[in-house]
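Dear Dr. H.,

I hope your travels went smoothly. While you were away I took the liberty of generating a structure for the chain from your last submission, since the lab meeting agenda had it listed for discussion. I wanted you to have the full record in hand beforehand rather than looking at slides cold. The sequence, exactly as received, is reproduced here:
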Amino acid sequence: MIKVDTEEVVLRYGNRGMDLLMHALPGHFYRRSAEKIMELPKGNVLILTGFYVAGHPETDGPTGAYFLAKAFEALGFTPVILTDGYVGDLFRDVETIHIESCTESVCYKLMGQYVPVFCLSIEYCGRNSQDDYTNMRGVSIKEHVAGLDSIILTANDMGIPTFGIGDGGNEAGMGNLHDKISGILPIEPSVVPVDHLMIATVSNWAAYGLICELQKVTGIRLMPAYEDVEQYYRLLVSEGCVDGISRECKMSVDGFPVEVERGILSDLANART
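The corresponding predicted structure, in token form, is as follows:
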């Protein structure tokens, strides 16, 4: 079997241009992110997720957030998931805070209460240069978004390490590649930057990529089994989550059947060290 890098695995089947952006980031950006995380002191970690799609959260984002939370927990961190008010009870054994509007006072209250050692956003819409939040079709969803990207901006201002995961250009963190995205993708990109950006064809796959690299760095078994991932998608569907492309409540993510993730997980396990 020919081994490939983690980046090559999670950018497979690219159809929205993320593969074109890979070389705009530092090499081995998943390994770099994993190593940075393991340099940090143990403490609270704020994880942002939840993307609004036609009145529902999409299946991309929550899955990755959940398995990242479990991996961080196994590594001695204390994960706390922040998500919008419309998102259901998706993270049942991880502390979760539902927020209707992340005003400045709410933001600073959360930062003061949890004093995070780092913040990570996965598949959360980031504001653009027009101070709007738009979906992949360019439609404004601002009235439905709690604005949790303010957590990332505040963490940046406070010197707290920030990590971002995106797959389309409009997510918090993609501000790192704003100019590149504007030149090659038909989307108004997010302007919200992070210290460490990870991209993938599907954001959930990026989460698996980071978990894979954390496992390699630490030697601790962290990768979820496909059966656990499949079971989690069933929970999401039962709670009304939808595919972000088809907008249908079914076992798929960004147009890919969940079964595709069996191969992604398998190939990550065999990726180059």
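Two observations you may find useful: The mean pLDDT is 96. The first strand starts at residue 44 and ends at 48.

With kind regards,
E. W.
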